[in-house]
Predict the 3D structure of the following.
Amino acid sequence: MMDRMSALDSFGYLGRERLYYRQLMYWRAVIEQHQPDLVVFGTIPHLIYDYLLYALCQKAGIRTVMFESTPMRGLVFLMDRFDGESRAARLYQEMLLTYNHEPSVLRPETEAYLQTLRGNYDQVPAYMRRAYKEELPGRQRSTLGTTLKKLVDLPAYGRYFRKQRAIITQKFSQPRSYHVKKGQQPEQDSYSRVDDTILRWRAKRYMRRLEVHYHQRAVPVDLDRPYIYVGLSFQPERTSSPMAGVYVNQWLMVDLLAKSVPQDWLVYVKEHPTQFTPSMNFRSQSGRAPVLYDDLAAIPNVRLVPMTTPSFDLTDHARAIATVTGSVGWEAINRGKPVLLFGHPWYRGCEGTFQIDSQSDCVNALQQIESGLQINYQKVRLFVHAIEQVGIEGYVEPHLKIANISEQENAALIAGAIREFWETSLNEGENHG
């Protein structure tokens, strides 16, 4: 979890241990002094300070609530803990009791989103194409008309100059960085703009070399072979720490799969595209080392996949997909492929997912898949309907802001959701008491 604070191995074990105990004592004192009934987190706790508070609350029996965003536009929902059964999953199980095979009626924007996941690869939204770093046929190119339209877009000029001013201001100000300078402690906060610039340059150089190392061990894939497709998650990030538990070391997931698949099956592993994205190298540098790719490639029935291999092709030809919490799993379910989950993503409990906590879980899931398991897509839609029922249309992070909802309206929605969640949890506690 503290890997994100390390700038090319600048933050060692002793420094991390020191920070852990200082934060632990601080939050214990806060809880003892204020004795809260409820602690609210804007998202799943995944930084050292908020995760320690969350863990202490769990130990002390203090109720917690956190928000989880979904890929469906503007749809977020609340849960009391990230590794338990969500309210959406519970509602989905209740809905299954009266399920009559009728298609669920969903929001128009949700319907459109699901159709893109099930459509041809060239229908995938542009942001997903860029994320996969794969060129698609039929890509729209600039025309004289679009160029002239941009030239007369007066508000765009204002946005451009504001952006340039922000960039210039940033260049001469102290960076907002959580990286710890080698030989110093986090509270010293002496990380300068020069330090940040040097780190970003060194990180890009390191990640370029690491990408070359990856491709030297990648081999062309045979899509006609039976295989499990593993999409690695970007690290360091909350999607693996804490949401993957022990499988934060994704080698453990791949190793377990390799030992569990039928004898003639392979395990295809593809790195997350953002891991090598230059703009993210200042973070991704602490999430990978060459030895990971060496260890994966050394497993006899595991193959590293070239980054240029389209992810949807890998999904569509796979017997199943495995991931800790990645969106590759959600995309797979919508394309009719079962998913082995080694972590706790927002879509756990959905039709077509298998929660893997042990090798026996893995073997049992693979036996069902080998026997020809089919996914009922109408049940996937029913799960989405449950998400819509328990969720709210709002946002908790600035970059997810919805244009047609003002900040005041959003604040009211968030506050109302917290109040409703609190009242419901109290009633559930009384019913179980």
Remarks:
- Strands lie at 38-41, 63-69, 75-79, 227-231, 266-270, 302-304, 320-323, 339-341, 353-355, 392-393.
- Residues 134-142 have pLDDT under 50 and may be disordered.
- The CA atoms of residues 172 and 193 lie 7 Å apart.
- Residues 407-432 form the longest helix (26 residues).
